[in-house]
Design brief:
With about 240 residues, the chain is of the alpha+beta class. The protein is built from eight helices and nine strands. It starts with 5 loop residues before the first strand and ends with a helix.
Amino acid sequence: MTGDDTASTRLAAGPDRTLPHRATYQERRGPAAEINLALVAAELAELTRDELLVLVPAPHRLPLPAHLFESLRARGVTVRLLHAAVPEPPAGPLAALARSGIALPASSQIPYFLVIRDRAVLYLPYQDSGHPKADRLTRMRNVVLAGSLAAAYGAAWEAAARRAEAARVAAGIDGVEGGRDLVRVLGDGLTDQQAAARLHMSKRTFARRVAVLMQRLDAATRFQAGVQAARRGWV
């Protein structure tokens, strides 16, 4: 029994719902194989080598355990999860993945759950969520299709990362009184005295607010804070 694309003959899951211990895989030469979600998690934990990309249409319902993604990243695997955008920040397991940079909201709706492993293997759901086997995924090895989808996924991820960074910076600026006015004067290269006079505040108040703003923006210098403002068209 060899090969990366294999199916397990046995699965032992503990009562704490952690991933199964190492599964025993039996190679299947067919074009595709149907496997349940528990086995998908076991396969991904054991067989993923470089990259795991996941699309999640319902962020409140994550089909795979969150600690799978965290353990893979701890091994040096690139792990990315794009989920459908929701009005409120994600909660539960997805919130932890978002804080660690693994999960980001997509700009458009995601119709189906999808997993891409190492740009070579796809895990596809049934189109009909009411199908009797809707709790199973079809594993398919197709380097051309998986590689193409991974490339498109990469572009979507970069766009999502830019939006998340812009939102983080905007939140940091808006969290400081007069934050947007501060970044504008920083971008103008004024002295503290000139900037304070323009904003009708004391030099000490200006310096204090700038310090808070730089902390919120993770900017090491005032110049960096001004550059961030310029990039977003605020100056």
